[in-house]
Amino acid sequence: MTRRIDYEKLDLMDALDLAILIEAEALQRYELFEEQLGHTGPGDAASIFHTMAKHEGEHARVLFERRKELFGDAPARFQRDDIFDVEAPDAGSPYWNMSPYKALQVGLSAEKKAFVFYDQAHLHVKDPAVRALFVELRDEETEHVRLVTRAIADLPPGADQDLEDLDE
Q1: Which CATH class is domain 8-76+97-153?
Q2: 92-133 pLDDT, tens per residue?
Q3: Which of 70, 78, 58, 92 lies closest to 121, judged by CA?
C-alpha cells in the first residue's frame, strides 16, 4: 500500500532512498518489457527497453553509492510499496510487435513522469540538501527527455510501424 509522502519532513537519507526506489522500479519495469517482447533484431523495441534499463540501473547505482557514502548501512525508512509508478512506464504499455518509435514514446513518457515528480517534490521540501538533490534529479530527467527525444528524431523511416503480424 502506497503511503503519502510528507515532503516537508524528508531528510537527505529519505530522499536518496526514494530516488533509489524510483530508479529501481523503472529498471525492473524496462527489464520486464524487454523479456516480454523478446528481441527480433537490432534497434527493436526490446533493445530500446534494454538500453533504458541500463540507464536506470546506472542512475540507481550512483544514487546508492552516494547514500552508502553518506549514511553507511542505516536501514531505509521507505520501501518499494511507498512509491507507485513515479517513473516506471505503464505496465500494460508494451505489446509483442511494438515499433521502436512506440517503445521510445513509452520511455519518453516515463522520463517526463519522473521530471514532474522531482519538479513538484522539490517545491514542498524544507531541507536544503533534499531540495538540492531533487532539483539535481529533475535536471537529470530533463537531460533524459532530451536524449529520448533525440533518439526518436534519429529513427529511420518506417520505425513507427509495428512489426507485421506473422499470422497475416
Answers
A1: mainly alpha
A2: 677 778 888 888 898 888 889 889 888 988 898 888 888 898
A3: 78
